[in-house]
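so my prof wants the structure for this chain in the tokens format not the other one, which i didnt know existed until like an hour ago. anyway here's the sequence
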Amino acid sequence: MGNPTLLIMAAGMGSRYGSLKQMDGLGPGGETIMDYSIFDAIRAGFGKVVFVIRKSFEADFKAVFSEARYQKKIQIEYVLQELDCIPPEFRLNPERTKPWGTNHAVMMAASAIREPFAVINADDFYGRQAFAVLGEFLRTVVEKCNNYCMVGYRLANTLSESGAVSRGVCATDAAGNLTSVVERTHIERTSGAVQFKDANGVLQPLDENAIVSMNMWGFTPDYFAHSTQLFADFLRTNGGDLKAEFYIPSVVNHLVASGTAQLKVLKTDSEWFGVTYPGDRPKVVEKLTRLIAKGEYPAKLWG
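here's what i got, hopefully its the right format
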């Protein structure tokens, strides 16, 4: 099977950020957040990166993110996520413009991955230790099925000073296995307290020490078959909804609740940060500069 693979979801358009944030150079040498993730993945023993991208920027993306950029230290593949990538028995509503969601992005890599794999967002910085614990777990589940994991972060460490965010709030059992992940939207710190808006738009309190998912997952390849079946179910129910999305937490919740799979919540001391809003950018640049000054990363990753 070889070393684990890293799947990077880079097809998002960055509507709130105002540009293709996954290609924004934030490091001193023009490194993107993805570059830091790949650097950490290489250090953690990953052998391949699969980028999920869109046809509309495929040429520009490939011109930048190639094996040559990474000095051939890791294998690179690309897969496309498009609206018409749905089972043949379904018809795409021509009025739909919104992507099908994160789990649909994962499904696009089924032909490129045969080994345990990690899934991350392109625009999130996860930290060296997070990749280390994730890679270690994935090496223990080679040849196994339905043994998954996620890296959990403390909610208070994942908020943005520039606006509200959405997070998957996790519950675990005594053994540290996930029992549920619930999407909470419009989370922000107000008057010193962390709150979210419920379905009625009413602010509700959230424990700032709650463990949340930042879309850093670990799966075995059987996850693709589960996803294919559940995506068909999703389309039968939601295919006519122009805004409905097929999210990773929805699939994970189903597989865990049904007893089909077990998902271990891994702890990490790594600092998470990301770029959701334009105002996040200078803060990310500052944090990367501090990490470089501490010796966590070289000033130039690929030089």
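also thought this was worth mentioning. DSSP finds seven helices and 13 strands in the chain.
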